[in-house]
Specification:
The complex is a heterodimer of chains A (about 475) and B (about 240). Helix content of chain A is about 60%, strand content about 5%. Chain A has about 475 residues and is an all-alpha fold. Chain A has two domains: about 25-335, no CATH class; about 355-395, no CATH class. In chain A, strands 1-2 form a two-stranded antiparallel sheet. In chain A, strands 3-4 form a two-stranded parallel sheet. Chain B is α+β, with helices and mostly antiparallel strands. Chain B has two domains: about 1-50, no CATH class; about 85-215, 2-Layer Sandwich (Alpha-Beta Plaits), CATH 3.30.70.3270. The longest helix of chain B is centred in the first third of the chain and has 17 residues, at about 1-20.
């Protein structure tokens, strides 16, 4: 009855909020029965697991090549089955639970990370519309008017997994790792969200299929390049990958939040991390690279054949793997960032810059849509004004930082003269410094008053003739 | 400007410290260049300097991998690599070792054990009086220094390039004479058999024996035939 009531109630809700109707996903799920959705869910799951199997091998091989060594090549052709061997090894390891651990949370945390990682992929459009078991259905599990926010929300909940893992382990390093993880997710999700706002402003929707459809003419990487850069940086921070893997930090935290984990519980974190990589890469593909759309040049061939149906899955996978390669490249090139530098970068640079960018994009969009009058020059003028403001701000900033640098240098310049005994003990002069004649550190001693009891021999010894030799 | 004054001061300091050399541009301190800690490249080199590391890792991907695929593709050793020892033979098949024990005396690790014995007319293993009846090298002790090779007066002991001698037991790493003896090459005869007729021990070392003679071949043939009929006849040295 409740269900029927709800369905009966729905049209009025929809009519009361027409914006929702406008925002509805472009993907058409009307011909998708529930069992087909189930099949698609399983396919997404399998797709992700296979990708993880390949990516771990891929990462180790590529990193190996970047370090001039072959990487794993023992198990299977080209070492392709290495991940399988690693997985088997993980499963056979002893599963240790520390005495101090909070037992329930200790088990829940890795499950949270491992399972939530799969959720976000549900809203990623992986291809065009295809025929499947007699039904016409998009290659996308589901879509909502706020699909992109779902990814952020799931990432936020996933961070609970890291925090809980760190806290429930009952030891210091995991706790520090968990805390870092929270700080990291909070500070970088702000910048990430801001970079996405620009996409929403352009697409006029948060539904992923809508965003993909809106990029038909021009992929957003070109008009929103700055957003793209911010997103790529923050996605590395979100997924705890080098150079932002502070929550794990083998060098300083001995493994971070997963220090106390072993066997398959650790495996879940491992799996979650790699699937998260795919999720954020897939989102980047969807938001900035046109999702499953064929690359320009190929898209027009054979009446747009390559832009339809299953072909989309190929383009989507290729684009996603470009990001994966970028991840590996980062790992092969950069050392871990220091924690304070990481926070400074996030809060003092990324967030303000992303904010300014969002304002600029909003103004440009307003001009394009016609809020600043119908003149065709409105957009150009807006862009020019924004550019002028940005350049002025940059010049100002540059001048101020130059002044600050000069002040530091001046403060660092050694004085021309140095008194080596100024502080009571000798200090050598710096190159180019002049040494002032040393003052005696101690005032001259009082003349020795010879005591009455001094012998003749003593006075004789003190004569200069004897001491000289 | 204060900066100019400072640099003047610095220059004066240099004059004091180095005398006339201060004018040499190569000896100018880092403070004479505008950006002391930045590399002075072209415009693009400076622009991409912060991310140049990415280029390094990317281009390394296409470099030749330095790893050796050892068990599958072992790389040949140097020609004079000190590997497993070998007890050589004269061209007719007689052993060169005379059992003098000089190798054992030379060994700093005390890894070699030799027991000499007399050659007889019935069983001759080497030209001359004596031969090495027992010859052991303990590869748990051997340090492959090659002093034994230098000590050997007859060039009987040399080293091969073979180095795959690992074992999980200790006992098999003490190599016996039959493991160390050089294999019989084409035309060589298995000792014992008499020296080539008309030759003395010194003729072997002068290189006058180049192959077994017909008499020696007949002797070995007869010896083997007799051994087939009567297993009692000693043909081969029985090692411990």
């Amino acid at each position: 009855m409740i269900v029927m009531e709800a369905t009966a109630y729905l049209p009025s809700v929809v009519s009361a909020a027409p914006i929702v109707l406008q925002d509805a996903p472009a993907a058409d799920f009307s011909d998708t029965p529930w069992w087909l959705s189930l099949i698609k869910a399983v396919l997404v799951f399998v797709y992700l697991l296979l990708q993880v199997l390949v990516v771990i091998w891929f990462e180790r091989r590529v990193i190996g090549r970047m370090q001039q060594r072959p990487g794993p090549n023992r198990f299977g052709p080209l070492g392709l089955l290495q991940t399988l061997a690693d997985g088997l090894k993980l499963m056979m390891k002893e599963d240790v639970t520390p005495k101090n651990a909070d037992k329930v949370m200790f088990v829940i945390a890795p499950l949270l990370v491992g399972s939530l990682a799969f959720v976000s992929f549900a809203i990623i459009p992986m291809g065009g519309t295809v025929e499947m078991f007699g039904h016409t259905t998009p290659l996308q599990l589901t879509d909502t008017p706020v699909a992109t926010l779902l990814v952020l929300a799931v990432a936020g909940v996933g961070a609970y997994g890291f925090v809980l893992a760190g806290w429930s382990s009952g030891s210091t390093y995991p706790l520090l790792g968990g805390l870092r993880s929270t700080a990291q997710v909070i500070s970088y999700e702000i910048a990430m969200g801001l970079s996405l706002v620009a996409v929403f402003l352009y697409a006029g929707s948060m539904s992923t299929s809508q965003i993909v459809a809106a990029q038909e003419g021009l992929w957003y990487i070109i008009p929103l390049f700055f957003s793209f850069v911010v997103y790529v940086i923050t996605m590395v921070g979100e997924t705890n990958r080098l150079p932002f893997d502070l929550a794990e930090g083998e060098g300083e935290l001995g493994g971070g939040f997963h220090t106390e984990y072993s066997s398959m519980k650790f495996g879940m974190f491992f799996l979650g991390e790699y699937i998260n990589m795919f999720t954020v890469s897939a989102l980047a593909t969807t938001l900035f690279l046109g999702g499953p759309a064929a690359p320009p040049g190929i898209a027009g061939l054979f009446d747009g054949m390559f832009n339809e149906g299953w072909w989309g899955l190929l383009w989507f996978t290729i684009k996603m793997w470009m990001f994966i390669f970028f991840y590996v490249w980062l790992r092969g090139s950069l050392p871990r960032v220091r924690y304070d530098q990481f926070m400074k970068f996030g809060w003092k640079l990324m967030i303000p810059a992303a904010l300014a960018w969002v304002v600029a994009v909003a103004l440009i969009r307003a001009a394009q849509v016609g809020y600043f009058g119908d003149s065709q020059w409105a957009t150009v003028i807006t862009v020019v004004v924004i550019a002028a403001v940005v350049i002025a701000a940059l010049l100002l900033w540059d001048r101020r930082s130059a002044a600050a640098r000069e002040a530091t240098l001046e403060a660092r310049t050694p004085p021309a003269e140095i008194d080596p005994f100024a502080d009571g003990y000798p200090v050598p002069p710096l190159p180019g410094q002049r040494v002032v004649e040393p003052r005696t550190a101690v005032s001259a001693a009082d003349p020795v008053s010879v005591s009455a009891g001094a012998t003749d021999d003593d006075t004789h010894d003190d004569t200069p003739e004897d001491t000289r030799g | 400007m204060a900066e100019a004054e400072d640099s003047k001061e610095v220059a004066r300091g240099k004059d004091i410290a180095r005398g006339d050399k201060a004018d040499d541009p190569a000896l100018q301190g880092p403070d004479s260049t505008p950006h002391p800690d930045r590399p002075q490249g072209g415009f693009f080199a400076d622009l991409f300097a912060p991310v140049a590391g990415f280029g390094v890792s990317f281009s390394t991907m296409f470099k030749k991998v330095a790893t050796e695929e050892y068990p599958e593709k072992p790389r040949p050793t140097q020609a004079r690599f000190h590997g497993r020892h070998q007890l050589n033979r004269h061209p007719d098949g007689l052993e060169k070792c005379v059992g003098c024990e000089l190798c054992a005396w030379a060994c700093p690790a005390d890894a070699i054990y030799v027991e000499g014995a007399d050659n007889t007319d019935e069983a001759r293993f080497s030209p001359g009086e004596r031969y090495g009846r027992v010859y052991q090298i303990n590869y748990l002790r051997c340090i492959f220094c090659g002093l034994c090779i230098e000590a050997c007066p007859t060039r009987a002991l040399t080293m091969t390039n073979e180095y795959e001698m690992a074992d999980s037991e200790r006992a098999p790493l003490i190599y016996e004479k039959h493991q160390l003896l050089a294999p019989l090459r084409e035309g060589m005869l298995p000792p014992p058999f008499p020296m080539a007729e008309g030759m003395e021990e010194r003729d072997y070392y002068r290189g006058q024996v180049t192959a077994p003679t017909q008499v020696q071949k007949d002797y070995v043939e007869q010896r083997d035939a007799a051994a087939d009929q009567d297993p009692q006849t000693p043909t081969q040295e029985v090692y411990r």
